[in-house]
């Protein structure tokens, strides 16, 4: 039996074992999950040397495609899997601790939540590893359903004002928008709905959107199968061309759910509430694992459509549209994040904006930006996970998700606030941090393609300006003195010591500090020594640019495709 | 690991270690900072003359190249010297009450500054530029909300500048295929005949970026916020060193494009592009002066004065001759020194009194004599009066205009220069002369270390004023290598200068003689004063209200103080102009519209079923239109 199947088997095992073993205590469940992800990460890293030497296919249970499942282990897929398991392990570590006053195990902390989270991880890993479109669809569905359940399980924070704080601003905003100035931007809205309205409505939106998109993909798969009899990506590469309009339609249908998962305009209306309602640990997974895995799948599909002869010419026609959608996503994402009062929503919209940059990079001809898009994706996954975890911690300490209420928390927990700043600066694309190189690489490729791509570059640069302002606003407010500024210029600026008369706050729990430290260290390391990641990313990019080389020879012995 | 690379790497490392480990050890942090500043001065001494030195920092995906050039060395040496004096001051200034905690970030900023000045390729320049940006943001904001607002204003403009810089960088890369600074600029300059539009675009983008950083043209308003709200010792660094980055980059990156290879239109001998920049500089000089006159806050006033001085420098650069560049560099150096002196004395006043408003101060000369002298020397230099250094550089700026017969542009420069005396003297009188408020009766003079820093700076101002060659000779040597890059030959291609004399187009002045004449007269007057009749001390009386109570007229004593809104008649004259042409209002309305847009976008995308339907419809339209072609 192929031992590589462990990559998929471990999360399945967790999701099945946890309800059996953790009847009494959710802590057992959380530990099982953490250890399993850690083992999976170690296993993935152990597989690296052999896969880097030569990519290989794993046919599960001996059933050849197109009936069976074929896993394709290459630098790209294994690298993505490693990233997914890293974030899963760190999120599980985060869930092990209880950073707030929240006694009831919510969301990802209950046994049920742990099982669902394992399924989500399975979905993410699967859609990256598989070489078959139908399998990708199945894994997308698994991820979608578990995400829906997990988002819906988010509970508001215990303190009273949190109930109102988690309700999204609706009509009140409209009335005050006309006369609004920045200082009075977020007036307390009246509680228009029940406390868990955000979670429920967010998850419902996500469900409706994801299921509709999945329906389209199923349609596309059906059409593709009826026309070609194939579903495996590699075989599509060497298949004779489909009729152009048919190929186009199929390609569009296939891309729908992936675009939705990666928050591309206009399919990202679910982003705000879903992230706001999700528990902090899962929000980190949703962004770090979900969006990343979907983006990798998107990149592979686009590379096949670009070079593959089954979709000959499709990518050329899609390229302009994808560039436009990507630019719009960047602009929309950064603009929407600017005024948000809820920190999780800010981070969610920022994610959308970054995915827009990924799409712009992916839409460039000849895959010029492939390596840098992957680097950008990796740095985004790490930085965003860091930000979401710390946002959860700060929200628990402040009792609300509103970032203005978190003012001054940085003085009590300077290390945590410092790491938050590191993550924010990385997303802004500033040097000494990972995001700089990714953004620089993508921008360079955009500029050198010339023509309409320059408009995309303008969108990305504008997005950077907006992003800088709102991230620095939040990062700095953590360090501001929480008392009102008095008239005397000699306000006390040193951090209050424990003996200063204020009640000493509990220190940052290890379960929050450790993952945050690891992720922050990764951000700094990638920023100072980007070549470390390029060792894996360079071959992965080659695979994206010329998929036929890798796929056709490595996967599928000649008799496999009909 | 040579003298270039070691400080570049060591400084941020020490800064980060200091940030993480020494958060509570305030004195240690500032001591480290002082040592770092000293090390930089030593590095400058080591690097002098070794123009072949270069270093590369390999990061696998890119190599950051650094090169020791005369121009970069000049800026580095000047700024390191000023930083050392400020570091001396800061060690004393940052006691328990006033500590701003910015020393670690400032150390990283020092490294970024060095990186900017010694950058050998575009990526190194960009990396250093960006690091400078975010560290300065956090330093200016230093954890206070009012300072945050000022800092984010500055940083937004800086981000816009960075976007333009990125666009220019990639355009240059695409056009020339190389990232090496000198190589790509030479290749770009050679493209004037083939692709004038592209080169102009690059020049424009770079100009936008650097004008934003140096607060020129439409970006004049951020120093008043940022310099004023920053920690007081850092304001001296902001006004002294940081605002010069844009001008350095203009000389390094933009002027070479307009060298001998320039093949476009010229106005009065200088390229059109530079001529327009010159007028922007002149108008900025006037604008800065007018706004400074209105100010009641001493730091904001001096910030506008800085803006005004940047205008003079840009004017000198626009004549595109070696003499002009020398005048600009000389004024940069002088401005660093005298503005540093002024801001440090303001910091000392604030340290002792806690006040920044002019009408609440007064008479402090009797309590803080050294601080008073420092400010006095500083404003004499700022006004351009001999024997202080400001005179020589302003004279050379105007001479450079004469060399191109650009007499029209000399008008705003002379106006601004003369009118500057209005606010400079007001600053002196408002803070140091006049009546001492009873609140400050027990104010002690500045601490010894602060006085030392101010004394050294005063000495520097006077020394350069007496011996302008001290600064001009290094400048001339540095520019010797640039002669083939900037307009060669013709008028103004030499910088005749000796230790004590400056020479221009229309005349020459032996400043040493002038200075000694002033010194002689001063000593003569002092002797007369001491030999004069006996003086008796008289207690001050609060007489300016002549016994009336201002509350009877619904005024507070402060509003009735003579120093409050001192120039009200002048303000009434210029206010209509300033109101109508308010760029701040334009920016403010732009920011407001963006905020409103952000709210609508977020709401539109969170809306219910209607939003979803619109979204899907929009997608369908985009796909059909985009693909059906």
Please give a structural write-up.
The complex is a heterodimer of chains A (562) and B (629). Chain A is an all-alpha fold. Chain A contains 22 helices and two strands. Chain B is mainly alpha-helical. Chain B is 68% helix and 3% strand. Chain B has 24 helices and six strands. In chain B, β1 and β2 form a beta hairpin. In chain B, α10 runs antiparallel to α14. The N and C termini of chain B lie far apart (58 Å). The model of chain B has no long low-confidence stretch (mean pLDDT 86). The chains are: A mainly alpha (562), B mainly alpha (629). The interface between A and B is large, with 84 and 73 residues.
What would a concise description of this structure say?
The complex is a heterodimer of chains A (562) and B (629). Chain A has 562 residues and is mainly α.
Topology:
The complex is a heterodimer of chains A (562) and B (629).
Chain A: H1 6-21, H2 26-53, E1 56-59, E2 70-73, H3 75-96, H4 111-129, H5 133-152, H6 160-165, H7 171-177, H8 197-228, H9 233-237, H10 244-261, H11 271-277, H12 280-307, H13 314-338, H14 343-362, H15 370-398, H16 409-412, H17 414-428, H18 434-449, H19 453-479, H20 510-528, H21 531-545, H22 547-554
Antiparallel strand pairs in A: 1-2
Helix pairs in contact in A: 1-2, 1-4, 2-3, 2-4, 3-4, 3-12, 3-15, 3-20, 3-21, 4-5, 4-12, 5-8, 5-12, 8-10, 8-11, 10-12, 11-14, 12-14, 12-15, 13-14, 13-19, 14-15, 14-18, 14-19, 15-17, 15-18, 15-20, 15-21, 17-19, 17-20, 18-19, 18-20, 21-22
Chain B: H1 5-21, H2 26-47, E1 54-58, E2 63-67, H3 70-93, H4 103-118, H5 122-141, H6 145-176, H7 181-189, H8 196-213, H9 222-229, H10 232-240, H11 245-254, E3 266-267, E4 270-271, H12 272-294, H13 298-318, H14 322-353, H15 369-383, H16 389-403, H17 407-432, H18 448-466, H19 469-480, E5 501-503, E6 508-510, H20 511-531, H21 557-560, H22 568-580, H23 583-606, H24 609-627
